[in-house]
Amino acid sequence: MTMRSEDRLLVRALRREVLPRPPVWLMRQAGRYLPEYRAVRQKAGGFLEMIRAPEHAAEVTLQPVRRFGVDAAILFSDILVPLEAMGMHLVFDEHGPSFPEPLRSRAAIDALRDVDPERAMGFVGEALRRVRRELPDETALVGFCGAPFTLAAYAIEGQGAKSFAATRAMLYRDTSSFEALMGKLATVVARHLHYQIAHGAEAVVLFDTWAGTLGRDDYLRYAAPWTRAVLNELGGATPRVLFVHGGDHLLDDLVNTGAEAIALDWRTPIGGAFERFGERVALQGNLDPAALLATPDEVTRRTRALLDEVAGRPGHVLNLGHGVFKETDPECVAAFVRCAKERER
Amino acid sequence: MTMRSEDRLLVRALRREVLPRPPVWLMRQAGRYLPEYRAVRQKAGGFLEMIRAPEHAAEVTLQPVRRFGVDAAILFSDILVPLEAMGMHLVFDEHGPSFPEPLRSRAAIDALRDVDPERAMGFVGEALRRVRRELPDETALVGFCGAPFTLAAYAIEGQGAKSFAATRAMLYRDTSSFEALMGKLATVVARHLHYQIAHGAEAVVLFDTWAGTLGRDDYLRYAAPWTRAVLNELGGATPRVLFVHGGDHLLDDLVNTGAEAIALDWRTPIGGAFERFGERVALQGNLDPAALLATPDEVTRRTRALLDEVAGRPGHVLNLGHGVFKETDPECVAAFVRCAKERER
Q1: Residue A1 burial (CB < 10 Å; 0-12/13-18/19+)?
Q2: What is the pLDDT of residues A281-320, one digit of tens each?
Q3: What is the pTM of this model?
Q4: How far does the CA of residue A301 sit from the closest CA of chain B (Å)?
Q5: Does residue B4 carry a catalytic annotation?
Q6: How many angstroms separate the first and last alpha carbons of chain B?
Q7: B327, A169: Cβ pair inside 8 Å?
Q8: Predicted complex ipTM
Q9: What is the third-level CATH fold of B5-344?
Q10: Which of B216, B220, B249 is the mutation pick for testing A, counting most A CBs within 10 A?
Q11: How far is CA A22 from the centre of its chain?
Q12: Where in chain B are the domains?
């Protein structure tokens, strides 16, 4: 008695079916705010070690499902894993991820390796298999990857920067090298997502975290074509979700990429987004993750207001507008999840 | 033969007078991208040392006026100076500014000192006097300060953070302490701006760099009232400009604060902003500062396109959508400034 993927609540919402309640999950729901996560991290010895060990990655992926009963598990991994597989040395320390040798030349770009996901990132496939085996039947499994622009920006800067000056300089002054890099990244990203789908992912999220720093013309010129290439390469058999942090000014263009769903940043009013785009795409989000730093009562009040604004329109996936903060009280996450479930009554 | 303030091009544009061309200046036009700035910084010994020495602060304020002929000089200082004057220990190092002892308790907030600008920040007044003395007659002098929310966020976090989790936690969980802090800050900010006006500032910019991380409801509840208090306390005799980084979703609310001008982030299409708000406020901006990392020809192309989009509407101040990057080629700044001046022909 195994439920088919297309019958799981998340997948149905991404197909914009009429449902008794919206599915709910949270970006970065597996994370440091959970004591059980911190215990695994300590045992594993570090962040990258957790990602590379399927038993640890699977365990922390399952934790929020057990604790909160969310409707989807998103594989515990990092958007930068494919860059490491392409040959870049990746380091995680207390300041976050960094590449000690950022990409700054055409030679360095040309030296990036092509990636066979099974050989280079087999731990991802194995973790997905383990998660699916233990996941409740009704819970969907979600894969993800960084989008080409965001991966390029990280690779060129060497770290998460505020201005991405080095990226912008390459993109304007050495456009052909930048495009060569984007082409390579689009190929690897699509292959990585295909691989996750082949190992059980029933929906995929493309995180273009940094594309929101681009004005609209630059987004269309320097990021959107490669996002579209990835989405086209995947096809629509598995729903594709696109997220851009601070992407409110790009919403029309994000919808035009052809993704089945757009994950909204918390600063976009979701009611208005449904009015403009609700016939074309599903919309995920978008409570301010900082709201989860308030009390559970306040979280409930705000989440109910958000659901009232959506007014039960088909195609809504309740989520945050960005990842859960490490300072979050798990009781606030529980309150958030309850707000979706109480709509069924 | 001294020109009156109200006849200077910048002030006239902020009053939305019809002009032969828009005035032009650049946020962070005095900065590390200029070799003559780096020379002064080396002589002074550091960033804070430059700010505190009126001869150095005045010199770097004047440099971009001499080199580019911009229509306004903005005093070289830092938005965090008032927090230091209130008793917080401020440090500048290679990671930027930080407060080693961030504000995390009501007691720490209550202990913040009231500020007499002449006694605590007399170097600001003295630098303004020196700049005005040497400034070409037609060039306007601009003062500035951080807005209360941005100052509060820096003080609570201790540094420029991405999520401002500590700030949001205080604002939701200890609202009365947060409001006490905002009240104190609004008083000091208004006093600091009054002081700058008394010493020659002919327009003031209130930088609310971090308010764009707030959703609209939170902005209206936790930031706007104190911005409005500052603006009301100043009155409109000297034009007031308000800038919010990433503030596109807040534009209606920013216009409603009563400021004479809104400085637009580069992601807001300026033509649309003029259509919506051009009868109510002047609009400053908003070329992407990253565009100045391209070639001078590309800067010229983009700046002309921006000016064409504005179509000579009254109330336009040509500027960037954020500060000049330190990696910028001064030739690109020169090309940007030329685009405003060539409109006069």
Answers
A1: exposed
A2: 999 999 999 999 999 999 999 999 999 999 999 999 999 9
A3: 0.95
A4: 13
A5: no
A6: 26
A7: yes
A8: 0.93
A9: TIM Barrel (3.20.20)
A10: B249
A11: 19
A12: 5-344
